[in-house]
Amino acid sequence: MSDKSVVIHVRFYNDGSVHEIGERPASLSGQQWFDKLSNTYAMDYMALSGGRGAFKLTPEELDTVKSASLQ
């Protein structure tokens, strides 16, 4: 991973569904974006306390997954 990373924060409802998530393309719901990131970059996800989590990606990885989401 490069020196520069993009951290995408996720907050969950009590039932485990996505409440809010950063860097989300307008064409996807929060849950769809989380699912896309999870399917592509599961190893870059960190579970945090308090119903939160974060993905740590390079800018290039983020660009790749965003452009794939537009197709």
Describe this structure in words.
The chain is globular. It has helices at about 30-40, 60-70, and strands at about 5-10, 20, 45-50, 50-55. Helix content is about 30%, strand content about 30%. The chain is an alpha+beta fold and about 70 residues long. The chain has a four-stranded antiparallel β-sheet. It contains two helices and four strands; from the N terminus they run ββαββα. The protein has one domain. The mean pLDDT is about 95.
Strands, helices and their partners?
Layout: E1 6-12, E2 18-21, H1 30-41, E3 45-48, E4 52-57, H2 59-69
Antiparallel strand pairs: 1-2, 1-4, 3-4
Record keyword descriptors for this entry.
four-stranded antiparallel sheet; 71 residues
